[in-house]
Amino acid sequence: MVYFLLAVSFILHGVLILIIIILFNKVKQTEELESRQKQVSREIEEVFHAYLLEIKEENAKMDDWFKYSSEQSKQRLDQNRTDAEEKTDYTPPLPLEGEEDYQPSIQSSVIGMYQNGTSMEEIARELNMGKTEVELLVKFQHIK
Q1: How many helices (DSSP H) and strands (DSSP E) are in the chain?
Q2: Which UniProt keywords apply (predicted)?
């Protein structure tokens, strides 16, 4: 009976040692995983920090550019004011003789004719276009 109890004790001790080794390996794996995650988080933080520094530099450049361009526009406005004060009698340019009159675009012609009640077939015939092209132009303008 003593031998039986010793055998059971050795078996139990062996199983417990095996369980302890398995648990030790699991703890070791989780510690390694945790250290890798910390390293990855540090790397991500460094990348974000570098990115933020680049953005700050770009913002500073843009701010300088904006200040410079606003100063130039103020100078131009002042120059234009002095020029305007010198030239008080402005007359707009007149069209030259023989200049062609304004011709509306095809799209505006189609829309105008459609809004005036002309059918799509008539519009296509009059403007020398396809009926489908006229339908698409009207559809793109969301006219009902």
Answers
A1: 4, 0
A2: Membrane, Transmembrane, Transmembrane helix
Tokens of 101: 């009159």
* 98 DSSP assignment: T
Place of tokens 């829309």: 111
Q: Are 134 and 107 in contact (CB under 8 A)?
A: no
Q: Which residues of the chain fall below pLDDT 50?
A: none
pLDDT value of position 137? 87
* Distance in angstroms (rounded) separating the CA atoms of residues 79 and 92: 21
Query: Would you state the pLDDT for residue 74?
Result: 80
pTM metric for this prediction: 0.38
Give the side-chain half-sphere CA count within 13 A for 111.
12
Between CA 39 and CA 42 the distance in angstroms is 5
In this prediction, residue 10 carries a pLDDT of: 93
What span, in angstroms and rounded, lies between the C-alpha atoms of 98 and 92?
18
